[in-house]
Each structure stands twice: as structure tokens, then as C-alpha cells.
What we know:
There is one protein chain. This protein is α+β, with helices and mostly antiparallel strands. The protein has two domains: about 10-25 and about 100-160, Calcium-transporting ATPase, cytoplasmic transduction domain A, CATH 2.70.150; about 35-95. It is built from five helices and five strands. The chain has helices spanning about 10-20, 35-40, 45-60, 65-95, 150-155; strands at about 100-105, 110-115, 125, 145-150, 160. Strands 2-1-3 form a three-stranded antiparallel beta sheet, with no helix packed on it. Strands 4-5 form a two-stranded antiparallel sheet. Helix 3 packs antiparallel against helix 4. The longest helix has about 35 residues, at about 65-95. The protein is elongated, with a radius of gyration of 26 Å.
Amino acid sequence: MFGSDTANGLPQDLVIKHREYYGINKIPEPPKPSIIKMILTQFTDFMIVILLIVAVVDFFTDEIPAGVALVLVVLLNAIIGFTQELKAKKALDALMSLHVPVAKVIRDGQTNVVDAAELVPGDLVSLDEGDIVPADLRLCEVVQLEVIEVILTGESLGIPKSTRTIRKRVI
Length: 171
């Protein structure tokens, strides 16, 4: 489908065409929300809006202690929600800054080591024991391959992989 050969890999001219068409092998960075927007989103939840309305009603009906208590609950909820969102943002930033792995790729019959971001669909990648899987791959030849997918699934045991054909959906 991609013009690849299981012995020689992709020819260099197809590598260039595939890179132009498909782009680089990298997850795009999500938009980064501002701190102010993160704080304001804490007050847009339906239940929070209702609590704020009830607090305002309490203040107008001279139920000041109940209104103050509701405002404190809303503020505490906003602080907790903001800190959790900030921690999640920092964790995502840390994941995005992980070292880009390299891949042993066969192109024009020659084995080269390239950054995983330089891989294109149809590249013939050679994996050895302990290598990081640099991209979504279709396996051509396998001998007792197991992949640890802890980052994706949380499963710490190796998952066996095979060359079994992916079933196509019939339209």
C-alpha cells in the first residue's frame, strides 16, 4: 500500500513524498490554556453556578452565615480543582518533553538510525530486544515478541505480538 519492500524498505523518493503528505511522526501539542482561563473554568460547572446563586439569595435574605459557608465551599472547590488541573497540565508537559526515541530503519536496502519523528508510513523498522517501539507498526517478521505497554494501558506485563493480518471492514 505504501510502496515498501520487506527486504529493502522504502526508496528515498517515497520517503520524501510520504513525509510531505503525512507529516512528521509526532503527536501535536495541545493548546496551552492560560492560568486565568483555568481559574475561571472552575466556576462554570452547573452545580457551582447553582451554589453561587443560592449564596447570593442567602445574602439577600439575611442568611449571611449560610451564604458565607457556600462561598467558602465554592472557593475551596475552585482551589482544589485548579491545583489538580495544574498538576495534570505539568504531567502532560513532562510527557511531551520525553526524549524522542530513535529507530533503526531500512531504506533503499541500507540500515540507518533516525529520530522516530522522521519515520513515515511504509518504513521498514528493525526492532531488537530492549528497543522502544518508535511508532505504530505493522509487523512483517516476529520471533517471540512481547511489548510492554505500561505507558499506554498501565499493564506492566509484556503483551505478545504477531504478524496476524488486521481484519478489514467490508463496506
